[in-house]
Amino acid sequence: AQKVTQAQTEISVVEKEDVTLDCVYETRDTTYYLFWYKQPPSGELVFLIRRNSFDEQNEISGRYSWNFQKSTSSFNFTITASQVVDSAVYFCALIPVSSNTGKLIFGQGTTLQVKP
Amino acid sequence: EAQVTQNPRYLITVTGKKLTVTCSQNMNHEYMSWYRQDPGLGLRQIYYSMNVEVTDKGDVPEGYKVSRKEKRNFPLILESPSPNQTSLYFCASSWNPTLPGELFFGEGSRLTVL
Question: Is B48–A101 a contact, with Cβ atoms under 8 angstroms apart?
Fold first, then answer.
């Protein structure tokens, strides 16, 4: 099966807390790409990061960081010192290269609410 | 500005009344795709197109048609909409689906079928 699971449906934190959004994926491919997208209340989908399966280095971009662990098939996303503007739905997604359809396999999304 | 443009952004219609959601991209992308987003289900692919005149079904194609007569446009057609097609629809495009990069999404079209 090719699938992405975001087990956390909703998370609520208070501003300045750190928060981690979990993403677990399944694929039979050895070459694949993982993505995170943000969907703010306005509804558009904002690309955050792409990671290929051969690059397990963690990445940090400002307050955002991503932890990719092939051993546990996880690609978790951490927001440090959360802000109200981080409130959104966050989607993790997978493209197995063998699919040849360009289809992103999305998780169900995690709704993050950051309270002031 | 590089963008994917969808129209209409919001639409309320009635069962059986044919409608078309247009999608246009200005990035000369080969690949275009349609997704629908429903609560608890994430986003699911409806149709995709590798290039002009090449289209194929995604995971949930029933009740939809598409065409790709020009590289920049990829309209989604609902011949006879039904209430279960009430959803948020996204068009997306990218350079080359076999070398996955960023998929650029439109702003979404919220459709309600009564």
Answer: yes
pLDDT of chain A along its 116 residues, tens only? 899 999 999 999 999 999 999 999 999 999 999 999 999 999 999 989 999 899 888 888 899 999 999 999 999 999 999 999 999 999 999 998 887 778 889 999 999 999 99
Beta-carbon separation of A97 and B98 below 8 A: yes
Residue with tokens 């197995």: A96
CB contact under 8 A, B43 and A91: yes
Tokens of A83: 């802000």
A44 is written with which tokens?
């558009």
- Chain B interface residues facing chain A, Cβ-Cβ under 8 Å? 31, 33, 35, 40-45, 48, 50, 56, 58-59, 88, 90, 94, 97-98, 100-108, 110
From B56, B60, B65, B53, select the one nearest B18 (Cα to Cα): B65
Q: Compute the residue count for chain B.
A: 114
Q: Which tokens in the block code for residue A103?
A: 């289809």
